[in-house]
Write a structure and sequence with these properties.
It is a single chain. The chain has 186 residues and is α+β, with helices and mostly antiparallel strands. The chain has seven helices and four strands. A hairpin with a 5-residue loop joins strand 1 and strand 2 (137-145). Helix 2 (27-35) crosses helix 3. The termini are far apart.
């Protein structure tokens, strides 16, 4: 098994990133950088490749659990936690609302807020957005998680939290795991 130290300088993931930029790296090379180190028998590239083989699609990495990561030979708890933290950072960067006030002025704003989180879930979710009079997001709450194609919500659950938060408006959203777009009702 070839170790990273034995590769030519421009084939090493870190050096390749420095020379060519992050977009030129494969998924395996990006994961190898996050994994950081291999062990005496395997390189981080080998472990990254094993992880990619463990999941059916790179997008499934988004929903991988701590336990599933630890099951991959070469990934212990510390590496699994690092990978999960990286996934959460990527999700938060993409949703752009966690640390700033977020205003909803158009349905596209709701899509920006929720699409990445709901895109790959495998069951229906019913989400309520609670807003101020100026349409600033006060709170986001998943009221119900359903089955593959069913989500049953009682209106009292939606309005109880709206009253509790003194929301001036609400937007309800639910996804379609079957691949249909999300539905938005305000």
């Amino acid at each position: 098994m070839e170790m990273i130290k034995d590769l030519s300088p421009l084939d090493k993931p870190r050096e390749k990133l420095k020379t060519y930029g992050r977009r030129q790296l494969t998924n395996q090379e990006l994961l190898a950088i996050i994994i950081n180190s291999g062990n005496k028998d395997e390189s981080a590239l080998t472990i990254a490749n094993r992880l990619l083989q463990h999941i059916d699609s790179f997008t499934y990495l988004r929903d991988i659990t701590l336990q599933e990561l630890i099951e991959v030979r070469g990934i212990g708890e510390a590496k699994a936690i690092t990978i999960l933290a990286m996934i959460e950072i990527a999700t938060r960067l993409h949703t752009q609302h966690n640390e700033e006030k977020f205003y909803i002025k158009h349905p596209d704003d709701v899509e920006l807020l929720l699409m990445e989180r709901l895109r790959y879930v495998t069951q229906e979710e019913f989400v309520v957005l609670y807003l101020t009079t100026k349409n600033m997001l006060i709170h986001e709450e998943t009221i119900f998680k359903g089955s593959l194609n069913t989500s049953i919500v009682h209106p009292r659950e939606v309005f109880k939290d709206a009253l509790k938060r003194s929301a001036a408006a609400i937007i309800v959203v639910h996804n379609h795991p079957s691949g249909d777009p999300i539905n938005i009702v305000s």
